């Protein structure tokens, strides 16, 4: 278990990146889960409202929930006497969660398997935890290593992952 009171900036970043950012996996990976069955795909895909629009709506709602949850948890840490740049760390944590979630979301959609998406996202987390240096451009734990520029790279990769999935669903429909 982790303590969430009286932490300095580095330990607050560790707590936010290694524990709170994991929320992204649970919010984003199952977004295409309901349509994994062939029968449901045949019902959903021909509808007037495009499947891509439905996915974008689900992604928007997941991002909104993610921002709210990370902000609330960061607020609780601040009230518990943790000292860190609040909005900067909220942004960094949201980006780390988006990265893990978008990787799992992409794999779920491309492989048509929620389990594969969870494995990919958790695998990426484990690689970051045990293998990738905090200075790498793909490290989700870069804030605790004192490197914040990485978050912009991760945000861009997350957007590209989601765009590829949306493009794939549009092609799949045709």
Question: What would you say this structure looks like, in words?
Answer:
The protein has 174 residues and is mainly α. Helix content is 68%, strand content 0%. Helix 4 runs antiparallel to helix 5. The longest helix has 29 residues, at 51-79. The radius of gyration is 17 Å and the shape is elongated. The model has no long low-confidence stretch (mean pLDDT 89).
List the helices and strands and how they pair.
Elements: H1 9-18, H2 23-28, H3 38-44, H4 51-79, H5 86-111, H6 114-130, H7 150-173
Helix pairs in contact: 4-5, 4-7, 5-6, 5-7
Give a quick rundown of the structure.
The chain has 174 residues and is mainly α. The chain is 68% helix and 0% strand. It has helices spanning 9-18, 23-28, 38-44, 51-79, 86-111, 114-130, 150-173.
Approximate helicity band: 55-70%
Distance between the termini: 49 Å
Order of helices and strands: HHHHHHH
Structural class: mainly alpha
Radius of gyration: 17 Å
Largest sheet, in brief, is:
none
Tell me the β content.
under 5%
Structural key phrases:
mainly alpha; single chain; 7 helices; 174 residues; 68% helix
């Amino acid at each position: 278990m982790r303590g969430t009171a009286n932490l300095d900036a580095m330990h607050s970043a560790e707590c936010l990146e290694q524990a709170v950012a994991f929320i992204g996996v649970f919010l984003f990976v199952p977004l295409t889960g309901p349509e994994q069955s062939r029968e449901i795909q045949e019902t959903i895909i021909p509808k007037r409202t495009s499947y891509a629009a439905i996915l974008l709506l689900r992604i928007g709602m997941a991002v909104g929930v993610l921002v709210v949850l990370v902000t609330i948890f960061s607020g609780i840490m601040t009230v518990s006497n943790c000292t860190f740049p609040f909005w900067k760390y909220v942004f960094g944590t949201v980006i780390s969660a988006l990265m893990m979630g978008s990787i799992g979301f992409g794999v779920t959609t491309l492989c048509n398997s929620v389990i594969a998406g969870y494995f990919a996202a958790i695998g990426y987390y484990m690689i970051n935890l045990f293998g990738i240096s905090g200075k790498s451009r793909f490290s989700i734990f870069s804030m605790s290593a004192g490197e914040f520029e990485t978050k912009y790279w991760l945000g861009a990769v997350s957007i590209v992952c989601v765009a590829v999935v949306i493009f794939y669903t549009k092609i799949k429909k045709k």
